[in-house]
C-alpha cells in the first residue's frame, strides 16, 4: 500500500532522476548507518566502480579482494583499470582473511575490498588496522549486509567508503537496479556526486572530469524510503529463521554458517560434500528451491584471467559445497522446520 502510494506520487511528480526523493533517501540511509554522506547511484557494481575511481585507483594498482563473491565486486576493479588480487577467506566467517590480505600486500596495492558475504561481517577491526599500517584504502562491499553490525556498530561505517546494492533480492531492495556509496569523507562524497553525473557539479552543465551516467532514480528512492524503516524487522525475521535452521540441522553431517549476532543472513548457506545431489533431491522430491553462491570462484571466470591469484585452499574447498537455503521471510517463514526435515531425510544414508 505504502509502496503503491510512493510509486503513484513519483509518477505524478516533476522529478524522475536525482530529485527530492533521492535526497531524502540519501539522508535517511546515511542517518540509519551513522555516516555523514550517502550518494545514490545506478547499481551496487557502479557504487564500487565509481568509488575506486573517486579514490584515484587505476592502471598499475592492485586491489585485494575475495574470489568467493558475486562477479560485480571484482568487475568494479577491472572497470577502473586496476588488477584484482584474490586472497583466501577465513573458513569460519567465509569473508576475506586478514592474514591473507596482509600476505598479499605489495608496493602496488592500493585498496582492499572486504565483502560481508551472505550478511556476515568481515573482520573490519583487523582489516582497518592492516590498511592503516600500509596506507591502503578500504572499500566495504555491503551489497549483502544492510543493517549488519559488529558490536552494535553498523557495517558501512568502518571503511573509508562502503558500497550498497538495492537489487530487488537484497535485504533492502527496490523494484529495479540501484545502489549507494556511504562515506564520512567530504571530498570523496563530492567527487562521487560529480562522477555519477557526467563529471559535472550538480548545478552546472560543465564536465570537469570524465564521469558516468549512474544516478539513482526517484522511483527506487521513494520505494527504498518506504522500505528502510522495515529493514531491521526483516533482519530480525531472518535471524529467527537462521536460528531455527541452526537448531533443526544441528548434528547433521554438514557445516552451518557462523552464529554471529551482527549477521543479517542475506543467505543461509550450508556446506555439504554432495551439494549438487542434495540440491537436486530437495527440488525434485520436495519442491524446495535452493541456490548456489558462489561457484566457480571468480579466479575461474574468464573475465578475471589477468587477476593475481594467491593460494585459496579454503575458498576452493568451500565453493563446491555451499548451498543457500531459503531464508527470505516471504518464502521461508513457517517452512524452515519442514526444509530442515527434508534435508535430514535427503542426506541420511
Ligand atoms: C557482494 C556483491 N557485490 C556487488 C554486487 C553488485 O550489485 P548490483 O547487482 O546492484 O550491481 C552484488 C549484487 O548482486 C553482490 O552481492
UniProtKB/TrEMBL annotation:
<dbReference type="InterPro" id="IPR000653">
    <property type="entry name" value="DegT/StrS_aminotransferase"/>
</dbReference>
<keyword id="KW-0032">Aminotransferase</keyword>
<dbReference type="GO" id="GO:0030170">
    <property type="term" value="F:pyridoxal phosphate binding"/>
</dbReference>
<protein>
    <submittedName>
        <fullName>DegT/DnrJ/EryC1/StrS aminotransferase</fullName>
    </submittedName>
</protein>
<feature type="modified residue" description="N6-(pyridoxal phosphate)lysine">
    <location>
        <position position="170"/>
    </location>
</feature>
<keyword id="KW-0663">Pyridoxal phosphate</keyword>
<feature type="active site" description="Proton acceptor">
    <location>
        <position position="170"/>
    </location>
</feature>
<dbReference type="InterPro" id="IPR015422">
    <property type="entry name" value="PyrdxlP-dep_Trfase_small"/>
</dbReference>
<dbReference type="GO" id="GO:0000271">
    <property type="term" value="P:polysaccharide biosynthetic process"/>
</dbReference>
<keyword id="KW-0808">Transferase</keyword>
<dbReference type="InterPro" id="IPR015421">
    <property type="entry name" value="PyrdxlP-dep_Trfase_major"/>
</dbReference>
<comment type="similarity">
    <text>Belongs to the DegT/DnrJ/EryC1 family.</text>
</comment>
<dbReference type="InterPro" id="IPR015424">
    <property type="entry name" value="PyrdxlP-dep_Trfase"/>
</dbReference>
<dbReference type="Pfam" id="PF01041">
    <property type="entry name" value="DegT_DnrJ_EryC1"/>
</dbReference>
<dbReference type="GO" id="GO:0008483">
    <property type="term" value="F:transaminase activity"/>
</dbReference>
Amino acid at each position: 500500500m505504502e509502496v503503491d502510494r510512493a510509486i503513484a506520487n513519483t509518477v505524478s511528480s516533476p522529478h524522475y532522476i536525482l530529485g527530492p526523493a533521492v535526497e531524502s533517501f540519501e539522508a535517511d540511509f546515511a542517518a540509519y548507518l551513522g555516516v555523514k554522506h550517502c550518494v545514490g547511484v545506478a547499481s551496487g557494481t557502479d557504487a564500487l566502480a565509481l568509488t575506486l575511481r573517486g579514490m584515484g585507483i587505476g592502471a598499475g594498482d592492485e586491489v585485494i579482494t575475495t574470489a568467493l563473491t558475486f562477479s560485480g565486486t571484482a568487475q568494479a576493479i577491472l572497470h577502473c583499470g586496476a588488477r584484482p588480487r584474490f586472497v583466501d577467506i577465513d573458513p569460519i566467517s567465509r569473508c576475506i582473511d586478514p592474514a591473507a590480505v596482509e600476505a598479499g600486500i605489495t608496493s602496488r596495492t592500493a585498496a582492499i575490498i572486504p565483502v560481508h558475504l551472505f550478511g556476515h561481517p568481515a573482520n573490519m577491526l583487523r582489516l582497518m588496522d592492516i590498511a592503516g599500517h600500509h596506507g591502503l584504502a578500504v572499500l566495504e562491499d555491503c551489497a549483502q549486509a544492510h543493517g549488519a553490525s559488529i558490536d552494535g556498530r553498523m557495517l558501512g561505517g568502518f571503511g573509508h567508503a562502503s558500497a550498497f546494492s538495492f537489487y530487488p533480492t537484497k535485504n533492502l531492495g527496490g523494484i529495479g537496479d540501484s545502489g549507494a556509496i556511504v562515506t564520512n569523507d567530504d571530498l570523496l562524497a563530492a567527487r562521487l556526486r560529480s562522477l555519477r553525473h557526467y563529471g559535472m557539479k550538480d548545478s552546472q552543465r560543465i564536465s570537469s572530469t570524465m564521469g558516468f551516467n549512474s544516478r539513482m532514480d526517484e522511483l527506487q528512492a521513494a520505494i527504498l524510503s518506504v522500505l528502510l524503516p522495515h529493514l531491521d524487522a526483516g533482519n530480525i525475521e531472518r535471524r529467527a529463521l537462521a536460528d531455527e535452521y541452526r537448531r533443526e540441522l544441528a548434528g547433521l553431517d554438514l557445516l552451518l554458517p557462523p552464529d554471529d549476532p551482527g549477521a543479517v543472513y542475506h543467505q543461509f548457506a550450508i556446506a555439504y560434500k554432495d551439494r549438487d545431489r542434495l540440491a537436486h533431491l530437495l527440488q525434485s522430491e520436495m519442491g524446495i528451491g535452493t541456490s548456489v553462491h558462489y561457484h566457480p570462484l571468480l579466479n575461474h571466470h574468464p573475465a578475471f584471467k589477468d587477476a593475481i591469484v594467491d593460494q585459496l585452499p579454503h575458498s576452493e574447498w568451500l565453493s563446491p559445497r555451499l548451498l543457500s537455503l531459503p531464508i527470505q521471510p516471504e518464502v521461508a517463514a513457517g517452512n524452515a522446520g519442514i526444509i530442515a526435515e527434508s534435508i535430514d531425510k535427503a542426506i541420511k544414508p
